[in-house]
Write a structure and sequence with these properties.
Belongs to the steroid 5-alpha reductase family. Keywords: Membrane, Transmembrane, Transmembrane helix. Its main location: membrane. It is a multi-pass membrane protein. Helix content is 63%, strand content 2%. It is mostly helical and 262 residues long. Helix 4 packs antiparallel against helix 5. The chain is built from 8 helices and 2 strands, in the order ααβααβαααα.
């Protein structure tokens, strides 16, 4: 029953795609559980968490540019590497390229940075985004000649992706208004869904990836989305704990990422 239902929603996965999907889900999911247990990756407000032997740092802006730009560039290059492979493939490439182009632009024009970033952390994030973007596009390339899913989620996916993209951008703008350039003081975010969850930008980022998965309808895309959701939920859980430890007046009813639930 479950097998026939999945066959109606996704392309029949090849062995290569199945292996890629399992590795992706295990890698992202384990990182999310690690973050939930209190071992945060050291960027943003967790830059100075724990001790590090590495002392090679760059500015926060440079570090995040390093993190996002390679995935954007691969998305752009994919239009030349895999041309003329149909509307669905073009939409998948476009969605991923737009997502990372937006994140790259936000580094320069939206976010305000007050600290530095370890180069090895920036490199690890960059490799993860680059690899997963490349694998998602390659998995879509491997669907050539395969039977289309019985249920077409393409246009549902476009709507979800655009909602996630715009919601994520809106809440990033709200965060940027909390402090001026160079101001290191953190404040409790207000407005939008910040009154319900401390990381609505993560919630909308998850929605954006759900949208990409619905457009792609491959096992790897859905595995990446589930793994990313676990990772972002773990990070939002750590973020909420950080705010609770820093602000005595932090509203206890504000959840981590899912309103009223988590």
């Amino acid at each position: 029953m479950a097998s026939s239902m999945s066959q109606g929603l996704i392309y029949p996965p090849t062995l290569v795609v199945t292996i890629m999907s399992a590795i992706t889900l295990a890698f992202l999911g384990s990182n999310g559980i690690t973050e939930m247990r209190g071992k945060q990756l050291q960027y943003s407000k967790f830059w100075n968490v724990g001790s590090r032997k590495s002392t090679f740092k760059v500015s926060g802006r440079t570090g995040m540019f390093m993190a996002y730009s390679p995935a954007f560039l691969f998305g752009l290059a994919s239009f030349f590497l895999f041309p003329n492979e149909g509307l669905r493939f073009m939409l998948v490439k476009s969605a991923l390229t737009i997502h990372f182009f937006k994140r790259t632009l936000e580094v320069f024009f939206v976010h305000k940075y007050s600290g530095s970033m370890f180069v090895d952390v920036a490199t690890m994030i960059s490799l993860s985004y680059f690899t997963q973007t490349a694998l998602m596009i390659y998995a879509q390339h491997l669907t050539r000649g395969l039977q289309e899913p019985l249920v077409d989620l393409t246009y549902v996916g476009i709507a979800i992706f655009l909602a996630g993209l715009s919601g994520n951008f809106y809440h990033h703008c709200l965060l940027s208004r909390l402090r001026g350039e160079g101001n290191k003081e953190y404040k409790i975010p207000k407005g939008g869904l910040f009154d319900l969850v401390i990381c609505p930008h993560y919630l909308f980022e998850i929605l954006g990836f759900v949208g990409v998965s619905c457009i792609a309808q491959t096992l790897h895309a859905f595995s990446f989305t589930i793994g990313s959701a676990v990772l972002l939920m773990g990070r939002s859980y750590g973020t909420r704990k950080w705010y609770l430890s820093k602000f005595e007046d932090f509203p206890k009813g504000v959840k981590a990422v899912i309103p009223f639930v988590f």
